[in-house]
DNA sequence: GAGTTTTTGTGATGAAACGCACAAAAGTGC
DNA sequence: GCACTTTTGTGCGTTTCATCACAAAAACTC
């Protein structure tokens, strides 16, 4: 793989570009400029060009970017033809919504199984996705080559569940609980804290009424966050 | 309001501090150091001290921070005693999960109503929260002094719905749809793109297997914002 | 109460990301 | 095929955020 060090923020924007290019391709558009992308995605055109420049010289001066070529390039780069299987732990309100939302329909990610402690849920299916008891975890991970888990259990059991997941071989966790999880440093954890997102929006609204927009993918979060 | 310019990232971390201080207070802890907070929240202690320093000199050298005092200070600063009413537009899978999750239980934010186009949903209640038709929006906003909306409609109607919301007086939108919304610059929009979050996690996992953790609020950055 | 330890608040430095501005290349029009 | 327009790729200054490192202050110890 010829992927050098791509800045974190760039890696977060690539799926956005990819998604919009799919849309352009679907409506038969042949070419697009950084300015065109900028309008649609509300990202500075220079930032977009810089992002692409990390991947190579993908455009042509005076022309812009060829939609089909760029789309294919990003598909390869993001490995969009390989399907990634994931599991979901905690089939409650939020977990059920995520199971029902079929990521696979529009993306290369598939939730292959749900897990829950509640015996009344075990053995059922949600939109064709089977729900298992926790003690079947290792088995299912091995069968479907799963390394990523979505965590939607109550915060009180989040750490214990994490330990269990790590032990079973999970390497990445998308954590929806408000708990800050401890795990070995080779385990990648992204936090999505919906309560904080809402609180932060309200805070900015109350305190900086007429500020400019700020893109906010999870700083996630955020992170990123 | 004695709030100067607080860095964006700091504003996103304050609710995290607040939440943890509540927990400490509940178990009767009197004092906490930046190192103690750092351990629990996985944020560098210098960053934490710097964050607090924007708000004033809240700690005491050689002692740390008084939990009760700091909690009260943050409560005031974040205006945690004022309840903020919000509405939710699009009572589908995700919308229903959010309605069922009572933000109010642990925070100062209350979803007072849901709205949906689907007549079979209008007139029902979810956990005591009434669901209205879209044409009742202005009325409900005025009644409850609502300025913030959570948007969980299909992406295809997201822009039209946004226009409608802005027109009705909404000033802040927490957008769960993958659409990039256009709105006047005085409207604050935060994006939470769950698909991108998942894709980004997988990307990092595939390409940088043994990297260090990166906080990702939403930014979530958000991050993400 | 003198000496030791703890811990803050912040100056200084570094790292990451953003976006201006422009040369160079390619396309378009006549 | 010449003049003009479009648009990329990137050098570079700016902004934003993270973290080191340390003096100063307060708290403990005995
Ligand atoms: N629902 C939301 O809108 C929302 C919003 C913000 C944050 N969250 C967070 O997301 C998480 C899930 O929220 P929810 O509303 O879906 O809660 P929920 O109670 O509806 O669902 C939790 C599920 O986890 C299962 N569970 C409990 N202990 C378990 C264990 N040890 N192992 C496996 N499964 C277990 C329960 O049986 C239940 O099905 C919580 O941490 C919550 O704080 C949810
Ligand atoms: N469910 C998830 O886990 C998930 C994950 C990622 C992104 N999303 C995004 O969140 C949004 C909602 O997802 P969902 O799974 O809840 O979808 P859904 O189809 O279950 O719910 C959408 C709801 O919006 C209502 N609606 C449709 N048009 C409307 C209009 N013009 N005005 C008012 N209401 C209208 C529908 O009646 C429905 O109740 C989508 O944009 C989706 O892309 C959802």
Number of strands of chain A: 9
Q: Label the CATH architecture of the largest domain in chain A.
A: 3-Layer(aba) Sandwich
What would the average pLDDT of chain A be, to the nearest integer?
90
Helix content of chain A: 40-55%
Q: Mind telling me the CATH class of the largest domain in chain A?
A: Alpha Beta
Provide the low-confidence segments of chain A as ranges. Answer: 210-225
Q: What order do the helices and strands of chain A follow?
A: HEHHEHEHHEEEHEHEEH
Measured between the Cα atoms of the first and last residue of chain A, the distance is 25 Å
GO molecular function, one term (chains A, B): DNA-binding transcription factor activity
Function (chains A, B): Modulates transcription in response to changes in cellular NADH/NAD(+) redox state.
InterPro entries (chains A, B): CoA-bd (IPR003781), NAD(P)-bd_dom_sf (IPR036291), Rex_bacilli-type (IPR058203), Rex_DNA-bd_C_dom (IPR009718), Tscrpt_rep_Rex (IPR022876), WH-like_DNA-bd_sf (IPR036388), WH_DNA-bd_sf (IPR036390)
Keywords (chains A, B): Cytoplasm, DNA-binding, NAD, Repressor, Transcription, Transcription regulation
Question: How would you explain this protein's 3D organization?
Answer:
The structure is a homodimer of 225-residue chains. Chain A is of the alpha/beta class. The first copy, chain A, has two domains: 8-76, Arc Repressor Mutant, subunit A (Orthogonal Bundle); 84-194, NAD(P)-binding Rossmann-like Domain (Rossmann fold). Chain A is 41% helix and 16% strand. Chain A has nine helices and nine strands. In chain A, the strands form two sheets. Chain A has a seven-stranded mixed beta sheet with strand order 5-6-4-3-7-8-9. In chain A, helix 8 links the parallel strand 7 (148-151) and strand 8 (172-175). The radius of gyration of chain A is 20 Å and the shape is globular. Chains A and B meet through helix 1, helix 5, strand 9 and helix 9 of A and helix 1, helix 5, strand 9, helix 9 and strand 10 of B. One nicotinamide-adenine-dinucleotide sits between chains B (89-95, 116-118, 134, 152-155, 157, 161, 176-178, 194-195) and A (97-98, 101). Chain A binds a DNA duplex (30 and 30 nucleotides) through residues 7-10, 33-35, 44-47, 49-50, 52-53, 57-65.
